[in-house]
Fold this protein.
Amino acid sequence: MKLIFLLILWGALTSPLALSAQTRIDGINIDAQNVERNFNTKSLSLTGKVKLQYRDQVIECDEAQINLKTKTLEASGNIMISTDSSKISGERVEYNLETKKGKVFNGTVTSGQVQFLGDEIEKVGENDYIAKNAKYTACTNCPPSWSFTGTKIEAKIGGYAYIKLPVLRVIDFPIFILPGIWVPLKSDRQSGVLVPKFGYTKNGGLALSLSYFWAISRSQDLTFTAKNYPLRGFKSLMEYRYVLSENSSGEINSAFIKDRAFENLNDQIQSLDRWFVTYNHHYELPNQFIQRFNLATISDLRYLRDYPEEIEGHGNPALENKASITKNWEKAHFSVESDYYINLLKEDPLIKNTDAVHRFPEIHYSLINRKINDSNFFYNMDFKYVNFTRNSYSYDDVKTQAEYQNDINNCLSNPDNDSAYCQNHVGRIKDTPDGSFDPNLDIIRTGQRLIFDSTLYYPLHYKNILDILPSLTYQEARYIFSTKPASGAF
């Protein structure tokens, strides 16, 4: 009888033991549809939606075999190993929970926006990997438009990856091969060479650009870009960004190219120095004042059309340059602003910006819902002043010399018209003011405008069913026009 009992006990200890689907064994949290434990081999067999958690590691798969003595596992089917720094997926894995080392077959490692794949990825340290027949890309949330493939990738999450014999691919099409390249695997801002980019323009052809990012400090950085167009030439670009405080920052962008394929007014190709500069600045001054500055200037009017990815404004009637200072109170607003416009509605791309009308300055002050002493009377007020100016004549001669001459001939041939009036039109020069303003023909472009309005109102309430708001409004508008031969502050 004693012998039979020992045989039964021995069989129970050496046979697999079915456990509950959720359990904790040797520090490993286990969740699976089927869990079997073998005390003889000190192992676990898990199947069906397996999820393991050990320290900072979470492992998901379809099937897994765990050696409890060595803390090693073999898993297969929809594998995902998640840690604080990365996620590993693959078809099959051999992994040590204690040392965090192992191998992934047909696997992928993802860290932030960086991803690399390989036929075999060996995890040789907590954040160190070696991938064979691998691919690297920095586009994890879209179909990769570019990638590097190589025979071997040595990667350190939080550091860099070295790709041996990398082939740059665009939409999986090979472009060129290098003996080796270092690429960043850090999420922090750091100085270094960025991934090459490609672009295309009608007259420039396929362009290749290479950028260097300089992390000057925690609050400022600078990006230099070298870009080459086979038909247009070499272009240099610069982007500088800075942060002065939580709500104050700025950005400067510029570019320069000796363009060999500039298309002039007569659709002829010539060489021309071309450039653009943009500057956007927002600064919160003491006493709740805010300073803004927005600059956008170009070498020629066709720059926006040829390089729309560099500066916004293509299709707009003008480029706006603005400087302002504003202050807002709870029930008041004050601002001083100046605007300089670059007229884009011109056929000649090299014409001077002489006919654009600017606002210099524009002053705005308003009050809302102000109570008069202890009475129930309220008032609001709005004051706006703007000076329209430009750096040429203050008015436009509407008609050309041929048109004026035609009107003169018609006027002289009609005996009912005043011949003296007709004779006064002689001597007009095409597209150029003659020094005298004709109110019947010319259009005034400059002047000053002042608008003031104020409203007095007395709210009445009858219980909770009726509100009456009688009001009295006064509005005044004043215009002062100048017809001098020339005016303007610019």
